[in-house]
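Handout, page 2. Input:
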Amino acid sequence: MNIKSNGFLKVVSREICRISSRPIYAVLMLVMPLAVFFLLWVMFAQGVPRDLPVAVFDQDNSVTSRKIIRHLDSAPSVMVSHRVTNMGDGKDLILSGKCLALIVFPRDMEKNIMMGRAPEIINYYNNEFMLNGSLVYRDIVGVIKTVSAGLCVQTYQKRGMSFEKALAQTQVIRVDTNLLFNPYVNYLYFMVSGLIPAILQIFVMVCTVFALGSELKDGTGAELMECAGGSYRRAILGKLFPYAVNFIVLALFVNLMLIEFMGSPVRGNVLFINAAAVFFITAYMSVAAMMIAVLANLRLTLSNVAFYSSTAFAFVGVTYPLIGMPLAARIWAGILPLNYYMKIYIDQAMRGAPVYVSFYSLVALLLFTFIPPILFFPRLGRILGHNRYWGRV
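Output:
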């Protein structure tokens, strides 16, 4: 074995001993990431919200209103949990959070329908939480439109029109709606697959900064450089190697769980997704090492890492479309490796896009991986070996 590889292995062995002697590393590297993954799995296991409570104020109390209420109660996302006798009680239920919507059937609704008039059914719904509000609104409107169409068909048939003609008269313009890539509106598929990498990159950056920054804080940088035979490359790469292996295995394990056990679809190239996961980890480790090289202070770097990583999920277009964000937000998204990894995951897992569509995003991850070491590792090596930077907190 040559001296260079021996120096690298010495650093790796030294870092494994440091990791095993400090419980905080086990917490950051395994316990908390797996706990968060399990928590998200439990939270989103159902995939689609069901039986969201709504209230009904039935002033008509007719066969038609009761029919609509039965249809509402059978809708996937709606459960008629309360029946109120006045508007005040319905308002209180919404304000207290016990119900997400109040549906009001007006007086003489059935009578007006029989006379050919168009009564209004009023729907008050809480859109403070857009997911719940949109699901409730969609099912309520869908049920009322379906029942309304059925009543119109019956009215035309009573006038002597055939069923086919009555149906055509009711649906003058038909909309053929096709949901692409997530037809069941399953939030497990896109929310968990986005949240887990967003949380994982926080642990990756914190561990990387803590590992390198602790050498400065404890004043052990010279010992590290000596162990590496004076080579900053062997010192930094050997030190970060155990963390890289740990988080890469963790990222691949998460992908396996998402695909094999949680049923997340994979319509594209799974090997490309896993390759992207590897460079996603190395990209964030490189960025974290760059930050500690620039700031040369553990506490200050951790603060900047917290800001950089904790805001990432909001800027990758999973919940709010990136194309609709202002220019400053799109620029910020461009300096986040998570943005490119999520593009690859969505393109390959959900859309089934050809590999070449995702290739530029993989190139971006490679640039994040290799450019910071080239530019900043020499400075990081000087910092580790210079007592001027030791003991900083």
